[in-house]
Amino acid sequence: QVQLVQSGAEVKKPGASVKVSCKASGYSFTSYYIHWVRQAPGQGLEWMGVINPSGGGTTTYAQKFQGRLTVTRDTSASTVYMELTSVTFEDTAMYYCARVFSSSSYFFDYWGQGTLVSVSS
Amino acid sequence: AIQMTQSPSSLSASVGDRVTMTCRASQGIRDDLAWYQQKPGKAPKVLIYATSTLHSGVPSRFSGSGSGTDFTLTISSLQPEDSATYYCLQDYNYPWTFGQGTKVEIK
Lengths: 121, 107
Prior knowledge:
By secondary structure, chain A is an all-beta fold. Chain A is 0% helix and 53% strand. Chain A contains no helices and eleven strands.
């Protein structure tokens, strides 16, 4: 069965970097794009970026995160990584990876369990 | 970036009621819109994609309509388990953008 398993909760100080992993299983890793979505406490969903795990691992990021967000993949480990640098208190959130089903339409069909990133001094 | 505006931000209705919420895009997005349901402490789940296609396993009381800039999610007969927050998401172009959500409460 398809699974996306994320790494555990993180606590970071302002200015630090955080790297969250998303390990895929149960399907062909390079056949589906992986997106990152975050949700601050009590707030809505925010799209962060996407990676195409095949080929060169092309990425697209939301303008808001340009320069701070890097999404990479390790095809040998079927794992996608999300690294956010220079974190601030406003980056405290649950971070989700999600797989996109794509044929003629797109939607998130599988999600990771979420990784809570807390930024605290 | 395309802005998605959902309304209302919250609503309260009784079991059996017909419930409607809307999502408006700041520019035309064809039918590239999905609806997600999120319950507290859980990841979102897709209900509808491509504006009106019901995802496998989703109850038929959920339906979607619209095109271009205006979209609607309808729950034909509200059930207790439908208490959740609902988000629209445009996948017309990057950056994908979510609406701010509609919280549905059961009276």
